[in-house]
Specification:
Blueprint (H helix, E strand, L loop, with lengths): L6 H12 L4 E6 L2 E6 L6 E5 L5 H10 L5 E7 L3 H18 L2 E5 L6 E5 L10 H13 L17 H16 L2 E2 H8 L4 H7 L5 E5 L2 E4 L1 H12 L1
Parallel strand pairs: 3-4, 4-5
Antiparallel strand pairs: 1-2, 2-3, 5-6, 7-9, 8-9
Helix pairs in contact: 5-6, 5-8, 6-7
Length: 222
């Protein structure tokens, strides 16, 4: 299906607003669409073939005229399109901008968000996890912007401490590793073996495998 043009969004959006009792006109001043219903605050809709920084900038600029600003874009296609669209709806909510989608085949218009002041809900769980990682991590081993796979976390630092102890002392009981390294969850960490570094040799006894030796050498060289 060919890409829908901005002008093809106008008729469905106009019909959608007219069905709600609005008088609608296109290209009024700097706005793509302006709608009035009696003496109520005017509604402005900016039309675009997709989300972009320019579209959001235009919508925010229109908020100097009215609080009732929407953006209208073609309906997404596929799961990836929906994920991207959903993320953009969340961004628009934070900006206090409404979102309309237009189905290019049927012309159906759906409102996914209405203009409203936004108060973000803080996640106590995510905040606690972030601060816990910050406090547990030793030093500043990562440069901001690194690939996630190479980031040294507090968990990895604990694993390296356990590996270093085993490399120096040989197979050991988890409680001995804990006492020597200060890693409170040493036994659990070695049992879970997230990185594949450790080998369980007996009940509660762990040794360092080849992968652990290589990782330990790399950590000393970095």
């Amino acid at each position: 299906m060919s890409r829908i043009r901005e002008t093809e969004l106008y008729a469905p959006v106009k019909a959608y607003l007219e069905a709600q009792g609005y008088l609608v006109k296109g290209e009024v001043g700097a706005a793509d669409v302006v709608a009035r219903r009696g003496q109520e605050e005017p509604v402005i809709v900016e039309l675009k073939t997709g989300f972009s920084l320019q579209l959001l900038q235009q919508a925010v600029a229109r908020q100097r005229i009215t609080d009732l600003v929407y953006v209208a874009v073609p309906r997404w296609t596929g799961k990836a399109g929906w994920r991207t669209f959903k993320g953009n709806v969340g961004l628009c909510k934070r900006l206090g901008v409404g979102v309309l989608s237009v189905d290019g085949a049927s012309g159906a218009v759906k409102a996914h968000a209405d203009p409203a002041p936004f108060t973000p809900r803080k996640s106590k769980r995510h905040r606690a996890a972030l601060l816990r990682e910050f406090e547990r991590r030793e030093g500043d081993p990562n440069e901001g912007g690194m690939m996630r796979e190479t980031i040294v976390t507090a968990y990895r630092q604990d694993a390296i401490r356990c590996a270093a102890f085993l490399a120096e002392n040989g197979p050991s009981r988890g409680r001995d590793v804990k006492a020597a390294t200060g890693v409170a969850q040493a036994t659990t960490l070695m049992r879970d073996n997230h990185y594949g570094w450790f080998e369980k040799l007996d009940i509660g006894v762990y040794g360092l495998g080849n992968a652990g030796k290589s990782a330990l050498a790399e950590s000393k060289g970095s």
